[in-house]
Amino acid sequence: MVKNRFTLIYMVWMSAFLGLFCTGCTAMSDSVSSPDGKIQVAFSLTDEGKPVYSVRMDNKEVLKPSPLGLVRNDQSFAEKLTLANVFKTETVRDQYDMLLGKKKHCRYQANRKVFTLKNPQGGAMQVIFQVSNDGVAFRYAFPDKSDKTCSVTREQTGFAFDAETVSWLHPMQPGQSGWSRTQPSYEEHYAIEQPVGKPSPMKEGWSFPALFKTPDNVWVLLCDTDVDGQYCATRLAHDSTGGIYHIAFPHPKEHRGEQDPVSPEIQLPFVSPWRIIVIGRTLSPVIESTLMTDVALPSILNEANFVKPGKAAWHWLRYSDESSTLPVAEQFLDFAAKMKWQYILIDANWDNNIGYEKMADFVQKAKTKNVDVILWYNSNGPWNDAPMSPKNRMHEKSVRREEFARLQKMGVKGVKVDFFGGDKQATMQLYIELFKDAADFGIMVNCHGATIPRGWQRTYPNLVSMEAVKGMEYCTFDQRNADLQAQHCTVLPFTRNAIGSMDFTPIVFNPRIRGVRLKTTLAFELALSVVFESGVQHFGLVPEEFELMPEYVVKFLQTVPAAWDTTRFVDGYPGQYVVIARKSGDTWTIAGINGTNDKKSISLDLSFIPDNASGTLITDGADRTFSQKLLEKSALRKATIEMQPRGGFVIIVNP
Ligand code: CA
Q: What is the DSSP string of 511-554?
């Protein structure tokens, strides 16, 4: 059965008829806790009838009383509200498998509580909370039926932090700004460990996900998820005076500008996307939580066997737009085959430089070497001026389906679609239609110049990755980005990559690229293959760099998984260093990077690995070389690792 949001609403209504709601509905304040009792959400109405909620963990304040409410073009649900009923707390349980990402088998358990509010016109709005041991999810619903369409003009939703809280935030970019009007593309450096309340540098607020640390050292990660074509993606507003961050809508110029409204147009009954608050006394939940997909709609694909995580060779990072030629493609195909990578990505302008016919032959040749082909596309429409082609093949449904049918016939397995530039409802609809249409033809999708994945990798498992990061390409564009790379990379696992696959396009071993000198070490770069998660991991390496790799590094890159059974936070601090352990089959791989300019010595707690396991450590040797060392079981369990300035390491645990 294809589940949709109306099924969910139906379930809410049925539980009302079954008498699950309580009778003492005059109470002005109520609460719901996580299954382990550690996280508590309190909900109440103010004297003016404004809904507010607050969050505590282990009795420490996480969020102060924070505003809730939506304003529609026809009615307001932001004040003068009364509590119509409170449903009894229900237990919600779910489990599901992911084809890619940080965890294969995901389990979810939460306590769910629904508050129904009425405005003076008699209109009803529900606030739905689900509290799990790793955080809080909440959403709004309008349960009433109506034939007419209305729009949500404003969200009152906010997150009120103590003024002493610090934040790691990504500045949002204005609509249709930047190179060829391709922004927003979520490609900025984070403002690292800043006091809350600071306005954003580009006056457009801050994009999700947003990381905070309260004065009691409680970590909080905010995001929106399960965004569908009924709503827009959201952000945190520019003004956060006093540490109160409000949800804001996209910039008016995004997508086709005035032709596409900022306010999402909705049909009733309606449920909004979820807003999630991952909460932890340590950084473990931030790295390990699957809340983004736990509350997202289950897969709607009938068949997803064609989705295969893997690694890809890619020519563009080193050789840029004019390198999508047959001779370059042939070289990288040989390289991919030698590295036992599953894919080769041919980037922009392949249609002009190679052409469809020769590409079809190339795809067949690649298959004889066990390599599949991914092709680049411009998302187009009138929302960008990027000249690269193929153009005008992705934004109109009939053309797009025709193109996917052609690609399927050619044997192409994936597309990389670039330059979306927006978060409006119209762009959300484009993404979702693109995922669905591609799935119909057995095509995997990777979006660049894009928004963040908002729970979609569960609903549309053929979405293998999204960019939405200041990735490796920026480190090749100018020296300042290369200088900041090491620190930037230690923020991403706790922020952008914590909420979904991230196509950073890691690993360059040559210290010079496009006139820029990279500041990271060889082992730092190698570790990114594990520290960063992407369903298809596109490496920045080029065939010449094969010579820079000892045999054990070649073997590591041949065998390192692109999708994981499970993921564990080992150690780290955003902006300084990070160590992550990931398991695939029986093998744990542990990887760390140092974002600072000083040597860093860390003692690892690896008590989660099997008692008798030994390991192989790959780290930096002298003078830009690798070194390899066997760690016997005692040395492994109490491993002390010294990372070079902007260095890193990888440990492969032998089961
Ligand atoms: Ca980009």
A: SEETTEE--S-HHHHHHHHHHS--SEEE----GGGGGGS-HHHH
Of 236, 259, 294, which residue is a domain's last? 294
What's the per-residue H, E or C state across 459-503? HCCCEEEECCCCCHHHHHHCHHHHHHHHHHHHHHHHCHHHCCCEC
The upper half-sphere exposure of residue 137, i.e. CA atoms within 13 Å in the direction of its Cβ, equals 25
pLDDT on residue 633: 84
Query: Is there a domain that residue 628 lies in?
Result: yes
Q: Is residue 626 part of a domain?
A: yes
Ligand 1 center–CA 449 separation, angstroms? 5
- Count the neighbouring beta carbons within 10 Å of the beta carbon of residue 617: 19
- Is the CB of residue 209 less than 8 Å from the CB of residue 264? no
What residue has token string 């409000």? Answer: 246
Q: Of 294, 313, 336, which residue sits at a domain end?
A: 294
Distances (CA, A) of 97 to 1, 325, 432, 599: 17, 39, 21, 40
Residue 103 falls inside a structural domain: yes
CA of 503 to the centre of ligand 1 (A): 9
Residue type, 436: K
Peptide bond into 645 cis (omega under 30): no
Ligand 1: centre distance to CA 467 (Å):
7
Q: What is the mean pLDDT of residues 237-256?
A: 96
- pLDDT, tens digit, for every residue of 613-631? 999 999 999 999 999 999 9
Which of 177-183's residues contact partners 24+ apart within 8 Å by CB, and which partners?
177/253, 179/386, 180/384, 180/385, 180/386, 180/387, 180/419, 181/383, 181/384, 181/385, 181/421, 182/384, 182/386, 182/419, 182/421, 182/449, 183/421
Number of domains comprising the chain: 2
Domain encompassing residue 573: 469-500+521-532+561-655
CA torsion sign, 287 to 290 to 296 to 300? positive
pLDDT of residue 168: 98
* Spacing, Cα 519 to ligand 1 middle (Å): 21
Residues 188/496, Cβ–Cβ less than 8 Å: no
Q: What is the mean pLDDT of residues 28-39?
A: 93
pTM, full prediction = 0.96
- pLDDT tens digits, one per residue of 356-369: 999 999 999 999 99
C-alpha of residue 108 to centroid of ligand 1, in Å: 34
Query: How many angstroms separate the alpha carbon of residue 505 from the centre of ligand 1?
Result: 10
